[in-house]
Amino acid sequence: MKKSLLILAVLGFMGFAQNNPDYAPKFSGYVRAWHQTDFAKGQGQYLVKQARLGINGYVNDYAAYKFLFDFTRLGSLKTTSGTTAAGEKFLTGATANFSDVMLDAAAVFKPIKNLEISAGQFKVPFSTDNLSSDQNAEFANRPLSTNVSPSIRDIGLSIGYNFNVPFKTELIAGSFNGSGLNKSENDKSTDYTFRAVVSPIKDLAIAGNYYGAKVQGYAVNFMNFSLAYKIGKLLVDGEYGGKNSKTSGSDLKSNSYFVFATYSFPFPGNLIKEVIPAVRYEMYDPNSNIVDNEIGRITVGLSFEFAKINFARFRVNYEKFNYKDGVTKNPDKLILELQTRF
């Protein structure tokens, strides 16, 4: 009986979507394939960095939904085998350990213009770089500032409002479990966050973020400031983030910053549409009480966007690390990435 009702509900929704094209589910996805060379170990490997599928749409004029899955999070297949009297091996069993592939699962409510309420699991509204999609990132790897940010995704509620007086402004407040991706939590405290983005002039965005949490009864606070400005084909972007963790003994302060620039050169050929060089400099200090423990990284990149495919990009990134302690080995990397999306 329950299966029949489920089938009828699915068929009813499909019929509704066909008669109301604006409410039909929209599918999107992308694949990022890598070859990574580690110069410290003198070895390289091929890997699928991400394989994501997204589904989103409206159910009426006020309510929407979104899902996002990453299938690279699936566990590897483990097999067991036996041996016959003749020495031949045969398969005796196979098991798979699957981690959670769900990234986003959110219900969205828009009761009035410019107001959006989201509930479920999604990206925490903190840090402009964290909120940018991996498919649109300017570099293969996220910056080191993720070390001074809360979990990129969490389960909770956020309320956002946009207005244009006296200039374009976005305000977001949110409350989250604080336990991270695909994890429930039942305690007396919840984490909270505030984010504000202002654009006083065209193509200039200034953002400020704050996140408050408690870990084992002690306060942990994050802050972040960013500025991005686009002048024609040139994009200049930078962020500063800090983390303050209080314990019974002392306070631990960490901070990080980065700045990068990209420039898009149009390409007249039939195969390549744009060539985009990029450079990023960043620094991460895991403990401000310790001298010479900072980690620096310079990333130099070159991306090629293809012209005759809906979206495809070939990217080359070289990462040069600098450890101030002079002891840690240098894990310089060369990354070759091919990305396609729909």
Question: Which helices and strands appear, and what pairs or packs with what?
Answer:
Layout: H1 2-19, E1 26-38, E2 43-58, E3 63-70, E4 77-83, E5 89-96, E6 102-109, E7 115-123, H2 128-131, E8 153-163, E9 168-176, E10 191-199, E11 204-215, E12 218-231, E13 234-246, E14 251-263, E15 265-266, E16 272-285, E17 295-306, E18 312-323, E19 333-341
Antiparallel strand pairs: 1-2, 1-19, 2-3, 3-6, 4-5, 6-7, 7-8, 8-9, 9-10, 10-11, 11-12, 12-13, 13-14, 14-16, 15-16, 16-17, 17-18, 18-19
Poorly predicted tracts of residues: none
- The strand order across the widest sheet is 1-2-3-6-7-8-9-10-11-12-13-14-16-17-18-19
Q: Using the coordinates shown, work out and report the CATH topology.
A: Porin
Helices and strands, in N-to-C order?
Answer: HEEEEEEEHEEEEEEEEEEEE
The major pleated sheet works out as: 16 strands, antiparallel, barrel
Mind explaining what this structure looks like?
This protein is mainly beta and 342 residues long. It has a single domain (27-341), classed as Beta Barrel (Porin). The chain is built from two helices and 19 strands. It has helices at 2-19, 128-131; strands at residues 26-38, 43-58, 63-70, 77-83, 89-96, 102-109, 115-123, 153-163, 168-176, 191-199, 204-215, 218-231, 234-246, 251-263, 265-266, 272-285, 295-306, 312-323, 333-341. The strands form two sheets. Strands 1-2-3-6-7-8-9-10-11-12-13-14-16-17-18-19 form a 16-stranded antiparallel barrel. It has a two-stranded antiparallel ribbon with strand order 4-5. A hairpin with a 5-residue loop joins β17 and β18. The model has no long low-confidence stretch (mean pLDDT 88).
